[in-house]
Amino acid sequence: MVKDKATVVIVGGGATGVGILRDLSMRGIDALLIEKLDMVNGASSRYHGLLHSGARYAVRDQEAARECIEENTILRRIGKSCVEATTGMFVQVEGDDPDFVEPWLKGCKESGISTRELSKEEALRLEPNLSRKLVVAYEVPDGAIDGFRMSWQNVQSAARYGGRYKTYTELIKVNIENNTVQSITARDNVTKEEYDIECEILVNAAGPWAGKVAEMAGLECSVSPSKGTLIAFNQRISNRVVNRLRKPSNGDIFVPHGSITILGTSSITVEDPEDTTTSWDEFEELMKTGEGVFEHLRDYRILRVFAGSRPLYVPKGADGGRNASRGFVTLDHEKEDGLKGMMTICGGKFTTYRLMAEKFCDVLAPKLGNTAKCRTAEEDLVPEVSVADKKAARQYFPAYGVNLSATRLGTEKFPEVVKTLKENPESREVICECENVTLAELMRIAKEPTSHSVADVRRRTRLGMGTCQGNYCALRSAATLNKLFKDKLEGCNDSLSDMKNFLQARWKGITPVMLGKTLREAEMTRGMYEVLFNVNGGRRG
Amino acid sequence: MSKSDVVVIGNGFAGLMSALVSADQNKKVTLLSYGAGTFPLNSGVIDIMGYDESGKAVANPLQAVAAVDADHPYKKIGTQTLEEAVKFFQDTVAAEGFPFIGSLNEQQWLVTGVGTLKPSCLIPESMQGSKCFDASEIVIVGIKGLKDFYADMVAENLAKELGNDKKYTVVTVDIHRKGERDLTTRDVAFWMDSEAGYKDFVAQVKEYAGSDKVILVPQILGTKGNVVYKKIVTDLGCPVVETTGMPPSVNGIRLRDVLLSALKKKGIRVIENCKAEKAEISGSKALSVEAGGEVRTQTYSADKFILATGGFYSGGITMRDFGQAKEVLFGLPVAADCVEDRWVNKQLFSDKKQTFAKAGVRVDETLRGVDESGNVALENVYVAGRNLSGYDFCFEHSGNGVALASAYKAAKA
Q1: Is residue A191 exposed (0-12), middle (13-18) or buried (19+ Cβ within 10 Å)?
Q2: Pick from A483, A507, A540: which is nearest to B348 by CB?
Q3: What is the pLDDT of residues A268-286, one digit of tens each?
Q4: Which residue of A144, A179, B140, B288 has the fewest CB atoms within a 10 Å radius of its CB?
C-alpha cells in the first residue's frame, strides 16, 4: 500500500544521511530520511568525536587533509554549540620515529594546516599530564565535536526547509520496474506496519550497512565494516586533543569532551556492523599505546568501553582495515549498474560529512533538473539560544547546567523548559547531577514525537551517560518516567525492571574494564542496588 | 612517635567494632580514621546471611553461616565467635540507648526504598518491615521535594511482595522548605529533630494513622538514635516503619554516632582525617604505620595492628593492572581469581556470585594474611571486614555480619 511519497528517499540517519537531507532541503528538493532505529545510533555517535584538523592525514592522504582543514573551519562556524574549539597537539615520546616529523610538517604545510612547535616546557605547562618522556610537540587546529548533537541539528535545520524524517522506520524492500526504482517498502518498527513510499531517487546512505541496502536492489557494493573500540575516561586528562605524531595506528588519539576524555581507536574488520562487542585484548592494546603519551593512564577511572563500525569502502581487489581509504565515493547506479533512480554514498569520516553531502548532491540535483547551489556552509545549523533565555534559566539551575541544557534543547524547546521551571517549582528537581538534567527537561523530551523509548530519552538528555554511569539517576529516571510516561515510552514496564535494565545497559560497557577505579564504582553500584534495594526480589525461595 | 597496644586502621563498621572489642580487653587503642566507611551507604543494619549459595532466602542465619564453604570468612571465624560478637554489639548499642532487635536464629525483614523486601538480622526498632505483613493498609509517606524516595514506586513493588488484599495509600508531606536545593533524607531528619518540624509532620500524617495500619517513611525519623521513633509511635498510635534508602543513609550515620560515643567512653584515641600511607615492617612483624593528616605525618607503633580498610570501594584492595590485585598498606597476600572470562558476570544482577567481589586478603583461622601454602605473612597484623577474601557480600547480604564477626575475632586474638 502506498502511503507516502517523496522526490528523494534517504536511507540512514547517520551523519552522511542527515547531511544530505539538509543539503537537498536547502536546495528546495523534497526529501524524506528514514532510519531503522533512533537517529545517529551508529558510527556517527560511536567514535572519538575528533574534529580533524587534517594533520593526521598530512603524510599519506593530502587530499583528505585539505578537505579536513576546510571543513573544520566551516563546522566551527556553522555548528558552534557542537564544537569545543580546543586545539590539538601532536606529540612524540622517546622511541617514536624522529624521521616522521619532517615529512609530516611538510605535509601539513602543503595541505594548509598551521602548525606551531612547542618547547617541551611549554607543552608540559599546557598539558601537565603528558609523559615526561615527551620529545617534541606541535600545536594544530584540532577540536572536539559532539556527533550526536550535530547530526540532530542537521535534521532540525533540514526541517526548517521542509525536509522530513522518520525514525524507527526500516527499509525492507526496493521496488523496481523497468530497471527503475519506483518505490520502497518500509516497516514501522514501533507499530510493525508495512507500507510503500514512492520516490524518484533512492539514496543509500546506510554507512556500514550500505552493502545490505545495495543487496536489496540486487546490486553489489563492497563495504567493509571496520570496528573501532574506544575507551571513555572519567575526567579531562588533557584540555586539548592529543595525537601521537607517527604513522596513523591504533590508540593514537585522545579527545576531551566536557568532563570526560575518549581514547581511540582500534580497527578490526568485522562481518556484521551490528557487532559492537569489545574484548580485553582490544582494551589492553589501547591502554598500552595510550600509556606512552599519558604515563598515569591506568590511575584514571574508566567510565566505559564502546565500539562502532566505520563504513570503509573497498574498491574491487583492495583490502579493508587500516589501509582502506578514509575517503568517500559516490556511486550512481544508473551509470555503474544500469539501475535508474538509485545512488549510494559510502565511506568518509565525520569531519567531512558536509562536504560529502555537497559533492553527492551536486551529482544528484541535476538529475532532477535542479540547478541550485549548495548553501550548507553559509548558514548556521541552528540559531543560538538567546542570552535573555539563558539569563532567565539561571534563576532555576546551576550556571554550569544552563549551557548544557541550552545546547541540548535548542532555541525552540529551551524557553519552554525555562517556563516550566518557573511555573512549577517541583520540575526543578535535578534528576541527573552529572549532566544537569532537570525533571522539566526530561518531561519535555519524553513528549517529543521521536521519543519512542526510554533509551531515546536517555540519549537526547544524556541522562545516565555522565560520570556516575546511572548510579544515582537509574532510580530517579525509572520512577519518574514510569509514573509519567508509562503509556508512551517503550521500556516502561514496571519500575523495578526498568531500573535494572537501565543499569544493565551501562554495565555492558563496564564489564570489559573491571579493574582500577572502575571496580570501586562497581562495588558501590552493587552495594546500593543489590543490598540496599534488593532488586533481585525479597522472599526468594 | 605514638605507641599503643593496638592500632586499628579503618573507620567503617569493622574498624569501630575492632577498636571497641580491643578496648574491652583493656588494651590501649588508637584508631586511624579516614572517611566514614560505608555507614552512609549501608543503612546501618546488620545483615548476617540473607541468601544461601543457590540464592534462596535464609530463614535461620546461624544455620546458614555454619554451612558456608572453607574459603568463606565465617568458616574461619566460627559460629561461636559470631554469637559472642552479636551479643557484644547488641549490649554496646543498647547501653548507648539505641537498641537493635533480632537474633541469629531468625531473619528480620526490611522494606527497601524501592518497595522490595530485604532480609536482615539485627535492625533498629524503627525498621521492622514485618509490621507491614499483618496490616490492612500501608500508608507510604513521600516528602515533597525529596528525590530518591518515590512513594508510588514503593507502593507498586510492595504490592507485588505483600499482595493486593492490602490497601496502599500514598501521602505527600510538605516540609515548607524555603531554599531551592534538592532535599536529602538527612535534611528531613534534621527537620524532624526540631520540635516545630516534628509537630508539623505529625499534624500532616495523623489523619492517616490507625491501629491496623502501618506508616511507611524514608529514613527521616531524626538523626539521633531512636528518640523521634519512640515519640512518634506513641503520638500516632500506629506502627511506623523506615525503609532502607539511597546514600546518605540517616540510620547508617545514627549507628556510627552511637559507636563513636561508645568509643569515646572507652577512652579510645581516634585520629581523624588521617590516611595510613605506609607500614614499617621488620621480618615477619609490623612495627608501625605512617599516617598523614592535612598538616603532618605521624608514626603510630603498636604491638598489634587490625587492618579494616575495606575492599575495592573503600580502597583497601586495588587492582590497577588486571591480575595484580593488592592490599595497599601492608602488602598482604591477596586471593583473586583473575581469569578473564569469569572475573565479571555479563549480567549485573544475576543468580551467580561475582568473582571480582570475592577478591581480598587470604587469611588463616586467626585472620592473619597467609600465602598460598598457608604461611603467615605478618604475625601481628589481623584483618577484619571487606578486606577479607572469599565472600560476595552483595549476593549473600552478609556485609556487616562478616565485618562484626571478623572484628570481634581479630580483636580477641
Answers
A1: exposed
A2: A507
A3: 888 888 888 888 889 999 9
A4: A179
